[in-house]
Amino acid sequence: MFMKVRELAKLLGAKVLCGEAELETAEAEFVYAADLMSDVLAFAQPGTLLLTGLTNIQIIRTAQMLDLPAVLFVRGKHPQEEMIRLASQVGLPLLVSDKSMYETSGIIFQAGLSPCPIPERGE
Amino acid sequence: MAAPYVVEFEVEKDDFLAAGEGSGSVKDTLKMLGMHSAIIRRAAIITYEAEMNLVIHGGGGVLKVLITPERIEIVSSDEGPGIPDVEMAMREGFSTAPDRVREMGFGAGMGLPNIKRNSDSLSIDSTVGVGTTLRAVIELAGQGGSV
Predict the structure, then answer these.
(1) Chain A positions in Cβ-Cβ contact with residue B105 (cut-off 8 Å)
(2) How many domains, in total, are found in chain A?
(3) pLDDT surpassing 70 at residue B115
(4) Residue A36 lies in a domain
(5) What structural domains and CATH numbers belong to chain B?
(6) Is residue A121 part of a domain?
(7) Size of interface A-B (CB pairs under 8 A)
(8) Do A36 and B108 touch (CB under 8 A)?
(9) Which residue range is the domain that position A13 belongs to?
(10) CA distances in angstroms from B97 to B22, B53, B76, B114, B124, listed in the order given
(11) Closest partner residue to B108 among A39, A56, A122, by Cβ?
C-alpha cells in the first residue's frame, strides 16, 4: 500500500517546510522511525518515509542517498535554514509534526503503512 | 576496453557539514549515465558510508569512483590511524566512533557491514599508523544499464 505524503501530513497536522512541488507526487510505501542514521542507511527501503527527532544536515544527506520521498521531524523539532536550503536543492520535502515519535508512528501505522522489513541478524 | 569514467574528490577530516557532498555528486553522475536506480542506490550507500568513515576515522582522504560498462569500483584511501583488527571492524555493532559522532546518528558499527552488503566484492587493506584503502565493487553485467 502507498500513501501520498501530503495526505499523511494532513492526518498528522504536520507543517510543510519545503518541497511543495515534490509533494504533488511524493508517495510513501514504508515508514522508518529512528534517530540512528546508521540503521536508516542499512534498513530503509526505496519509498520509505523517515520519521526522526534529529535535525543535523546528515539527515538530509542520508535521505538524499536513499531517494527517500520525504523526512518528517517529530516533537516540533525544527531544522536550520541551511538544512532546508539543501533539502530544497535536492528536491526533498521536509515536514514537522508537533506530536511525539510514538504518536506520529501510531497514527501512520493505523493509517495502514507498513514498517520496513528488517533482515535477521547476521544476514 | 574503454577508459573508465572517473569521479574523484577529497574528503576533509571532521567536516560534517560538507560530508555527503561528494557522494551526492557521484549519485548525480550515475543518474546522468543512465544507471538502474537499484544500482545507483547501492553505489550511493557505499560511497556515503565510505565518505563518513573518512570524515570520522580516516583523518580525511580521497574517494575515487571508476565507472565502466562492466562495473563500478569505489576506492577510498586515507593516511589515517589504520584499523588494528579489520575482522572486528566488520562486525555489526562494533564501533570506535566518539560520542559527538553518535549524537549525529552515526557510529553505530553499521558502516562497514553495510558497505559489504551493498558490494559484490570488498577488500580492505589497512596498516596501523599508515592508513587504509577500501575497494568496493558493484558488478554491472546484465543489470547496470548503459554507460
Answers:
(1) 34-38, 40, 52, 54, 56, 58-59, 62
(2) 1
(3) yes
(4) yes
(5) 5-85+112-139 (3.30.565.10)
(6) no
(7) 75
(8) yes
(9) 3-115
(10) 21, 9, 18, 16, 18
(11) A39
Nearest to B105 among A36, A46, A122 (CB): A36
Measure CB to CB from residue B45 to each of A36, A39, A65 and give the nearest one: A65
CATH code of the domain covering residue A73: 3.40.1390.20
Rounded (10°) CA dihedral A31, A33, A37, A39? -80
Distance from CA of A66 to the nearest CA of B (A): 6
CA distance, residue B83 to nearest chain A CA (Å): 19
Q: Hey, what amino acid is at B136?
A: A
Partners of A73 in the β-ladder: A52, A96
pTM of this prediction?
0.93
- Spatial distance between the Cα atoms of A64 and A70, rounded to a whole number of angstroms: 9
Length in residues, chain A = 123
- Asked whether residue A120 is domain-assigned, the answer is no
CA distance A65 to chain B (A): 6
User: What one-character-per-residue DSSP string does A41-101 give?
Assistant: HHHPPTTEEEEES--SHHHHHHHHHTT-S-EEE-TT----HHHHHHHHHHT--EEE-SS-H
pLDDT digits (tens, 9 = 90+) for A18-72: 999 999 999 999 999 999 999 999 999 999 999 999 999 999 999 999 999 999 9
Of B16, B41, B111, the CB nearest to A58: B16
ipTM: 0.90
Interface contact B92-A121, CB threshold 8 A: yes
The amino acid present at B27, given as its one-letter code, is K
Q: Which residue has the cell 559527538?
A: B100
